[in-house]
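LOG
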Amino acid sequence: MKDKVVLAYSGGLDTSIIAHWLKNNYDLDVIACCVNVGQDEDFEEIKKKAIKSGASKIYIEDATEEFITDYLFKGVKANAIYEGKYLLGTSFARPLIAKKLVEIAHAEGAKYICHGCTGKGNDQVRFEVGIASIDPTIKIIAPWRIWDIKSREDAIDYANANGIDVPVTKEKIYSRDRNIWHTSHEGGDLENLKNEHKSQMYLMTVPPEKAKDEPTYVEIYFESGIPKKIDGEELNPIDMMNKLNKLGGENGIGVVDLLENRLVGMKSRGVYETPGGTILYAAHKELEYLTIEKETFHFKEIVSQKYGELVYNGLWFSTLREGLDAFLDKTQEKVTGTVKLKLYKGNIMIAGMESPYALYEETISSFGASELYDHKDAEGFINLFGLPYKINAMLNKNK
């Protein structure tokens, strides 16, 4: 009996030719595994294509709800963003896909897992560190690090020469990743930084200048940091993300053009569409302004950045990430309430919020009189707060 290799399969350019390449270069039984994390695909066609390309069997694993609840919602609670822009759509999906690949490898008794990540990208790290964190005995086959194909153009030539249908051409050569959270675009004319990216590439979003002329208002209710309702209607996680993506998409929300620092050392440019996720992050952040006290809020800002870096760097299955989740869960205990947002031509504006745990008290914060705040108390506070600087000034004067 042949040894088996589980191939992370999407039906895109790389994995389509890899299934054929594995069959012709290894004496292995190729088991394809396509993990559905909410990408808009014809999975029946993917099944047929995988078998035609060389796989003996294919698994289609629907992990969309798990992706949202166990990965994306943790990111929302953390306000995890990489380098101030990237909402980590690909980064959140990779550890879950790695987990599913290992599960299929165990079910099939496979010794190998193969992926289609390039030798220049972050995803090779995310997949391989994720797999090793679950089962370090599994061996990795990474074709882009060992075969003679050097570019996407070469890959297209290989596909054409072997009669393999692929979803890209040399004219439409963007490398894309799509799931229910985002769509990423890389390569092609984006590699020249002088080029403005073309809005024609968008798959989830209309350009802001072509968005609706009237604003859209949306109310999002959170419970302990987790979104539960939109406009008063309780929705399951998948329906919620689909609705937010529709609202964000038609209002031109959530497109970023980012020159990022890759984990592997180089800078790269990507255009990311995250319409629904951008709305969720904005609403959640506003509710935290209302419900989390100052010192915790400020420390959480540091944690948010670190959390984003961990996710980006493929360290999901780490003690540090788990420990940060415990801290974040504590901070979210009272992040409950409703936030109203105004969406208009690529912009998100706060339009009202309320919470039973609001730390804002109108009678204290207003300029009027208050039983809990005496204006005269400020004098003593200022004297104590400014004392070190007075002493420093006195010393400088004496010198």
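LOG (cont.) second protein
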Amino acid sequence: MKNRVISLLVLVPALTLAMGSVQAQEKKAATPAAKTTAAKPAAKPVAKKAPAKKAPAKRASTAKKGAAVAAGAGAAAAAAAIPVQQTLTPAELAIAEQVYQGRINCELGASVNIAKDSVNPGYFFIEGKGFKYHMSPVATSTGTVRLEDQHAGAMWLQVANKSMLINRKLGQRLADECMSPEQNQVAEAIKKNPPAALFEGNGR
């Protein structure tokens, strides 16, 4: 009986120590996990980027409208740059009615374009490669249709079967053997039936 009591007295302290060590180990195991969990900072919310603003489509259309207005203003300014010319006489206006207009082909592949001046009745714009003149009709004794740009020294001569452009200041023929469709018909008719005057004086 004494032996049992002694053994119990020996076992109780041992069991108490064993239980204490187990509890201490459990506390140590739980503490790092708690520290690790507390050490992690909370995730910051991701800020959303605002979408890039698109340039309004109206700007492009406004720029196009502005360019069109500027082009129209430039054309108006160019027309206004031509001074108002002297009013022509009825005889000069009658000569202007005989002037062939449009694109007229000349020799060596050249061409001349003749257009009415819508601002000044009886006046014409005559232009081609490297030249542009503002001309008015001049009366002649031979009936030849003649236009002149006195400032530039240029002259357009039109007869039944051809026309030519001369610059007297430069001393050059800028275009020769120019024929409108009507003049071309006359030239072909002359080739087929030469005037009798061409044979006068032969054989002398």
